[in-house]
């Protein structure tokens, strides 16, 4: 290889090459350094793996007062925001005029149903006594019917037979006496003591006595065969009817009482429903006054302006609010937290109990300490503009031993740095200096004579700004932070050479290794070991995309990005990303950019150095 150097004007000197590295020297000016390089030192010292995010302060014990009035109502009065209130103070009053009218109408309904309930109770009591009376009467009728039957069978029946038999005996005696008289009359008539008419009269008496005897016999027969049988059947039937009537009276009484009981229960339920509705309306009227449950400062529960729906108004007098809508918050300033959102690429590193460094934008000189209190297990609902964005909510509790935290107010913006891991003596370089080509990582070293060497390195863990170096460089060496700017062509050639070599190797190993990238045996980072024994999954650096993005977009190599250098999509969010409002974006601010991709090393995504292929 020849190095061509221009000396003076129009003089071309051809020199013998000196091979320093497998790559071209960046320039050949000897001992003079190229000032266009952005460089930094390889250092050995404490290495912190951390996740930096931004969030908003809020009270850890935040009491929210919401509307408990059903439907919609209007705010009649509300204390000014920021007012310090005491426990028991009325902080907001909602319109209750419609509820007051409903209360009057409902009171009428309650009065009517109460009267119906009392009437139903009396009807049940009356029916119970009526049932007792009807049952007693039916039982008495049955007893009397049984007595009539018993009286007939054991008394009247024999008495009537005796009467009939006595009539027969008397008729016989009358016949016998008439016959004797007739015989006597005939004898004395012959002697002339009676005339023939008297004799005839005695004969007629005999005939009459005979007829009376026959009638008496027939009466006895009728009494035995018909009268007593019929009367016995009638009395027995009357007893049976009285038994059935008693059962009928009892059943009818039970049925009637059941009807009155049902009406009573219906009246009770109706009364309870109407009374409950009256109590609910009265509770709603009381709910129109929001009472402070604790001392605190009034904060209106307005949604963030950027997220407020078009149909939801700000909290103020005259605003219509719905049921369960938050109106006022009373934060407890003695216990504060930071609500942050963690990108899905970093959520696996966040665990409950990790230490957190917190800096509030309003008090940048004060460092607060905190711990991860809660980490959501499900992502926050996606933004409709960016449905592929997955973020998880994390709650950072600010520790009370940070001095005066009462000056912190809800809504202030804070930057949090979650300390995932920290080791005392680690060789490390900035993330911008590491280049990934295939499965290899490279760093460009700036030599003392101004030339640049390429080194293959093995990496370990990575933070937002630094990467652990396992081997390949030494502490104190100077690394180039913008290698792709100066060595783009060489890197492209190297990528092509590595790709060709990998393809040839796959062809030698057979058809089964062609799809190595898809996870076949030849896949260098499909869960296997990288050269040097490092696991591709374990050694994949996280959070290095910010440095690579900075390197790609920093056209003037000043270590930051202006709005003119930013791409069109980034320009739309430039002011939002520019946290310190200096008109530029640095690596720390770029690390907050969501959706820039996950950790480096993926196909087409950011590399560990934060760079993509040109």
Plain-language structure description:
The chain has 614 residues and is of the alpha+beta class. It is 39% helix and 25% strand. A six-stranded antiparallel beta barrel has the order 4-14-17-16-15-18. It has a four-stranded antiparallel β-sheet with strand order 9-8-6-12. Strands 5-13-11 form a three-stranded antiparallel β-sheet, with no helix packed on it. Helix 1 packs antiparallel against helix 2.
Please name the defining characteristics of this protein.
Elongation Factor Tu (Ef-tu), domain 3, disordered N terminus, 614 residues, 39% helix, 25 strands, conserved putative lor/sdh protein from methanococcus maripaludis s2 fold, alpha+beta, 25% strand, Helix Hairpins, 6-stranded antiparallel β-barrel, 3 domains, disordered C terminus, 4-stranded antiparallel beta sheet
Write the layout of secondary structure elements.
Layout: E1 3-7, E2 11-15, E3 39-41, E4 43-59, E5 62-66, E6 72-78, E7 84-85, E8 90-94, H1 97-190, H2 196-287, E9 289-291, E10 296-297, E11 299-300, E12 320-322, E13 326-331, E14 336-343, E15 355-360, E16 363-375, E17 391-398, E18 413-430, E19 435-437, E20 440-446, E21 452-462, E22 466-471, E23 478-480, H3 483-486, H4 488-509, H5 536-539, H6 545-553, E24 561-562, H7 568-572, H8 574-577, E25 584-585, H9 587-590
Antiparallel strand pairs: 1-2, 3-23, 4-14, 4-18, 5-13, 6-8, 6-12, 7-10, 8-9, 11-13, 14-17, 15-16, 15-18, 16-17, 18-22, 19-20, 20-21, 20-23, 21-22, 24-25
């Amino acid at each position: 290889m020849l190095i061509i150097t221009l000396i003076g004007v129009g003089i071309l000197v051809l020199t013998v090459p000196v091979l320093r590295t497998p790559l071209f020297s960046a320039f050949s000016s000897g001992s003079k350094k190229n000032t266009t390089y952005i460089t930094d030192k390889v250092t050995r010292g404490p290495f912190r793996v951390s996740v930096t995010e931004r969030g908003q302060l809020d009270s850890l014990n935040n009491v929210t007062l919401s509307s408990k009035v059903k439907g919609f109502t209007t705010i009649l009065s509300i204390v000014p925001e920021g007012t310090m209130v005491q426990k028991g103070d009325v902080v907001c009053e909602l319109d209750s005029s419609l509820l007051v009218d409903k209360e009057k109408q409902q009171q009428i309904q309650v009065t009517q149903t109460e009267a119906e309930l009392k009437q139903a109770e009396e009807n049940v009591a009356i029916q119970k006594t009526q049932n007792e009376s009807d049952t007693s009467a039916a039982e008495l009728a049955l007893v009397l019917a049984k007595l009539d039957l018993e009286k007939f069978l054991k008394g009247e029946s024999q008495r009537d037979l005796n009467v009939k038999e006595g009539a027969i005996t008397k008729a016989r005696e009358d016949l016998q006496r008439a016959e004797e008289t007739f015989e006597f009359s005939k004898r004395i008539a012959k002697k002339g003591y009676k005339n023939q008419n008297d004799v005839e009269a005695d004969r007629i008496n005999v005939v009459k006595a005979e007829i009376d005897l026959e009638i008496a016999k027939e009466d006895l027969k009728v009494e035995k065969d018909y009268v007593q049988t019929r009367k016995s059947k009638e009395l027995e039937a009357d007893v049976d009817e009285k038994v059935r009537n008693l059962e009928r009276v009892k059943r009818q009484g039970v049925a009637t009482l059941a009807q009155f009981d049902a009406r009573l229960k219906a009246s009770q339920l109706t009364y309870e429903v109407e009374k409950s509705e009256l109590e609910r309306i009265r509770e709603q009227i009381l709910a129109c006054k929001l009472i402070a449950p604790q001392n605190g400062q009034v904060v209106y529960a307005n949604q963030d302006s950027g997220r407020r729906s078009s149909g939801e108004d700000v909290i103020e007098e005259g605003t219509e609010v719905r049921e369960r809508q938050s109106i006022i918050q009373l934060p407890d300033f003695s216990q504060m937290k930071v609500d942050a959102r963690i990108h899905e690429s970093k959520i696996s590193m966040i665990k409950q109990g990790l230490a957190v460094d917190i800096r509030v934008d309003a008090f940048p000189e004060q460092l607060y300490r905190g711990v991860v209190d809660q980490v959501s297990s499900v992502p926050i609902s996606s933004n409709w503009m960016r449905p592929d964005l997955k973020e998880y909510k994390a709650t950072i509790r600010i520790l009370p031993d940070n001095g005066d935290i009462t000056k912190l107010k809800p809504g202030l913006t804070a930057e949090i740095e979650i300390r995932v891991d920290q080791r005392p003596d680690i060789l490390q370089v900035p993330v911008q200096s590491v280049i990934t080509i295939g499965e290899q990582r490279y760093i460009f070293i700036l030599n003392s004579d101004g030339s640049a060497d390429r080194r293959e390195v093995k990496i370990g863990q990575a933070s937002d700004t630094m990467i652990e170096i396992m081997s390949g460089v030494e502490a104190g060496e100077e690394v180039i932070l913008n290698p792709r700017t100066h060595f783009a062509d060489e890197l492209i050639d190297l990528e092509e050479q590595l790709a060709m070599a990998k393809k040839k190797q796959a062809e030698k190993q057979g058809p089964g290794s062609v799809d190595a990238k898809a996870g076949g045996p030849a896949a260098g980072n499909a869960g296997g070991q990288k050269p040097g024994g490092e696991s591709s999954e374990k050694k994949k650096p996280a959070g290095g995309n910010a440095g690579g993005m900075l390197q790609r977009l920093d056209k003037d190599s000043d270590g930051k990005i202006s709005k003119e250098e930013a791409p069109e999509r980034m320009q739309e969010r430039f002011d939002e990303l520019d946290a310190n409002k200096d008109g530029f974006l640095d690596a720390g601010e770029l690390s907050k950019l969501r959706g820039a991709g996950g950790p480096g090393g993926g196909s087409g995504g950011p590399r560990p150095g934060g760079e993509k292929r040109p």
